[in-house]
Amino acid sequence: MSTHSTTVAPGSPAAPSTLITGIGSLVTNDTAHGTGPLGLLTDAAVVIDAGTVVWVGPAGAAPAADERFDAGGRALLPGFVDSHAHLVFAGDRTAEFNARMSGQAYSAGGIRTTVAATRAATDAELDANLARFVREALHQGTTTVECKSGYGLTVEDEARALRIAAGHTPETTYLGAHVVAPEFADDPAGYVDLVTGEMLDACAPYARWVDVFCENGAFDGDQARAVLTAGVARGLTPRVHANQLSYGPGVQLAVELGAASADHCTHLTDEDVAALAGSATVATLLPGAEFSTRAAYPDARRLLAAGATVALSTDCNPGSSFTSSMAFCIAVAVREMGMTPDEAVHAATAGGARALRRPDVGLIAPGARADLLLLDAPSHVHLAYRPGVPLTAAVWRAGVREL
Ligand SMILES: [Zn+2]
User: Fold this and answer.
1) Residue 109 confidence (pLDDT)
2) Ligand 1 mean position, distance from CA 290 (Å)
3) How far is the CA of 84 from the centre of ligand 1 (A)?
């Protein structure tokens, strides 16, 4: 018999517990429950109840539950944790991508194209667009998604982006410091004052995180420090777009300020790698960006060898990485960045959870949120082995079967 949550409203039917059995290969990311860093189990079962994993173990020892789901020998893993995405925007940048693939270089300035389209959109349009991307990601196995502002760049437009994002995910990130707003092109210091003042005041109630694009053409180290420390003073936790297009101070700043994550990490000195390895700051790699800008990939092996925690994420945005597919990122990380399939799957699940400081997701263990991805494949390795093939067989989010 299952014990149902006491939070179920009177009169509504209690959600049944479910036994998922016949799991050919189970990625738990819980080394106490299985072998290797993925905590792998074969011929396994999982019981979920009231949105939570309540039991994990061998199929032959599984307890009874209200309902039974036969995985048919396929692979079950934690839902993907996409810890870096920019999903509140309007319009697209097809022409820019087409031009880039015809030989033009990527620069941070292209962001302003999306800013103009986003400002012109209604709340309803932005909300519908965001809902579509969250759904699109869910259908590919992503059960947790972070979402940044950064295409409004006015007090009102940044605040509404975060207000809309907060309706879809608790992982909302204030990125007023994405690029200098066009109105402040001749006064970047004035824009930093706005981002650290009135704009922060308007955005902080809807945001968990504060982020800054620390890069040539965006914000330098001093400006980035001002943005992050102002956010911290308002109770936000920092994460940083760091060292994407060039070497710079972003990674060191992220580590110094105790950021949850330094994202991109494409151009790292030995000191940067050592700083990440010696800290709790996750190195979040975003291979969709290098893919879509035809740039050199970050050196994942160097980070892993040093002992840094690595996450993989989509960076889904209309300019430099218009993919919501974590499976695609895994395949690219394995083929182009030297990660093993196990490392890439770990980075896309447990790594992302670490980058969002979420102990309840990115693993399948008693007490974890029941976010599960069933693959139409016998092993998680197929995510890299069968690139571009839709392998999602079923997804549960907080115990609810979504597809
Ligand atoms: Zn980004």
Assistant:
1) 61
2) 12
3) 6
Q: How far is the CA of 113 from the centre of ligand 1 (A)?
A: 16
Distance 132 CA to ligand 1 centre (A): 19
Q: What is the pLDDT of residues 296-354, one digit of tens each?
A: 999 999 999 999 999 999 999 999 999 999 999 999 999 999 999 999 999 999 999 99
HEC assignment per residue over 131-160: HHHHHHHHCCCEEEECEECCCCCCHHHHHH
Q: How far is the CA of 179 from the centre of ligand 1 (A)?
A: 12
What is the CA(144)–ligand 1 centre distance, in A?
A: 16
Mean pLDDT across the chain: 95
Tell me which residue of 255, 247, 190, 186 sits closest to 214, measured CA to CA.
247
pLDDT tens for each residue of 67-87 = 999 999 999 999 999 999 999
CA-wise closest residue to 335 among 268, 261, 388: 388
As a whole number of angstroms, the distance between CA 54 and CA 59 comes to 14
Distances (CA, A) of 109 to 40, 150, 212, 291, 319: 44, 13, 15, 19, 10
pLDDT for 112 equals 84
Q: Provide mean pLDDT across the span 39-49.
A: 98
Q: Ligand 1: distance of its center to the CA of 255 in Å?
A: 18
0.85 surpassed by pTM: yes
pLDDT tens-digit series, residues 215-274? 999 999 999 999 999 999 999 999 999 999 999 999 999 999 999 999 999 999 999 999
Distance 329 CA to ligand 1 centre (A): 14
Distance 211 CA to ligand 1 centre (A): 9
- The whole-angstrom separation of Cα 324 and Cα 307 is 28
Ligand 1 centre to CA of 365 (Å) is 30
